[in-house]
Structures are given as C-alpha cells and as structure tokens.
Amino acid sequence: MKLAIIGLGRMGANMARRLLRDGHEVVVHNRSREPIDELAAEGAIPAYDHDELVAKLEAPRVVWLMVPAGDPVDQQIAEVAPRLERGDIIVDGGNSRFLDTLARGEKLEAQGIRYVDAGTSGGIWGLELGFNLMVGGPDDAIAVIEPALKSLAPEDGYLHVGPTGAGHYVKMVHNGIEYGIMQAYAEGFEILHKSRFDLDLRAIAHLWNQGSVIRSWLLELAEAAFAEDPHLDQLKGWVNDSGEGRWTVEESIALDVPAPTIYMALASRFYSRDDNAFSHRVLAALRNQFGGHAVVKKEGV
Known about the structure:
Blueprint (H helix, E strand, L loop, with lengths): L1 E5 L3 H12 L3 E5 L3 H8 L4 E2 L3 H6 L6 E4 L5 H10 L8 E4 L5 H13 L3 E8 L4 H4 L2 E5 L2 H14 L5 E5 L3 H29 L6 H8 L8 H12 L15 H11 L5 H12 L6 H14 L10
Parallel strand pairs: 1-2, 1-4, 2-3, 4-5, 5-6, 7-8
Antiparallel strand pairs: 6-7
C-alpha cells in the first residue's frame, strides 16, 4: 500500500524502513530535511511540505503521525486535515493521551476524516523485531491500513482493540505496567549491588533469562546495560517520565482501582531527580536500552 509518515525520529524512521523492506510505498516528511533525504536514498518518496505530501498520496490517503504527544500532534493535524478529503485517514502512532485522541477523533469525524490511534511499542528495536501495535479506530479504516500493520508488527503483534481512543488507552496501561516491572527489577538489582557479595550483575541478568519465572526482554536489556557499564558508574539516576504512567495512575483513581505498584513506580521516578540511587541508574539504563531515551551522564564522563 501507499502511505505517508510524518515524523522521522527514532521510531518513525525505522517504521518507514520496515515498510519499505516489505514493498510498501512510503512518502516521508519531517521538520528537518536531513532525515527525509536519508530515507529518500533508501527508497522512500520525499515530501518537503504538506502540499507535496498529500499530492503524492492516493485516495483513500493515509497519513501516519509519529510525533511527540500534545501540541505537535495538533499542529500536524491542523496542517494535514484541510488538505485531505472525506474518507481519508490520519493515524496517530505516538503516545497521545486517550482523552485527547477521543476529542481529535470526534472533530475529524465531523469533517469526514477517519482517525486511528495506534499505540506503538518496540522502541529502537522495532526495525528488526517488529513493532507491537495497539490499534483503535473504525473498522473500515483499520481494513485500509491492515497491510501496513501486518508489515510493521511481528506475528500476532497487532490488535484492533476497539474504537478510536482505545488504542492509546491500552498503550497507556501497557506503559503503566512497564513502570512497575522496571521498578521491581531496579530494586532487586540495587539489593544485589549493595550486598556483601561481589556479584556479576550482567551474569545474573543472563542467568535469570534461562528458564526463570522472571525472564523477560527487559532482563536482556539489563544484561546489555551491565555489559556496557558493570556498575552503571557513567549514569546519573535521573529518570524521566513521558506521561503514560501519570495518566494510568489518574485513570486508576477515576475508576477506584487500587494500583499501588504503579503509583510507587511513578513516585520513584520523581525521587530520582533528587538523588543518585543505583536502582534509579538501572531504570535510566533500561529506558535507554529499549527506547533510546536520553540519559544524564555524570560530570566528566
């Protein structure tokens, strides 16, 4: 199929590459020119403004946004929507708050434009391993973009979870769970780090992935992080949060659902900004490993 991707950052560019590998025609646009030129050299169709982007698509046009949540999404919709026609599709593949997605979907529906939200997990590893996609939107729009979903995701790696808004809702809870799992690993490794024994944390992370009940991809990433920096001495334990954990906590409160693990995992990230605990360095390292998220290095490193 033919579609456009706006936003060629860590994930957007690799999504374009994965689609190109599977034979799709991908029109690419970005605020800066360099990523457009780079992907054009790899077979993508460059578009240096929104008029050019829409002109290079065919009805029903599909424009897939991979930009940060909040104002950047609204700005791109404001640029693209007036150039589209009834029946065209906008996909938001970022981490937008589901309430914002519901409002955007309602507004675009009134204009005859179908709005799909595709919560996307996979980080910087998605190019090779595939992206896990939690998709919300009308059935007819999902049918149009399904060839792209099949190419982007690994086997059984995408699901139409419900109407517009449901995809970002499921991704929000997914990320809240991620906070809790990462926090448990971080605390466990801090205990090991401070123990009376001289323990090889990389070897232990590797061991636990061989049939243990706590084996996971995150443990593989922990092993990689400890291989690069055995005691994470190069990192400061400053851990950002990009919104989804907060929104999961807020939703749990609205639904009267106790979620103490996620509450405390979020609170730990706030604590991290005032200290340099080893557990927080583990969290920072894991975020960098799976998502390429920036870390704060110690001075002089």
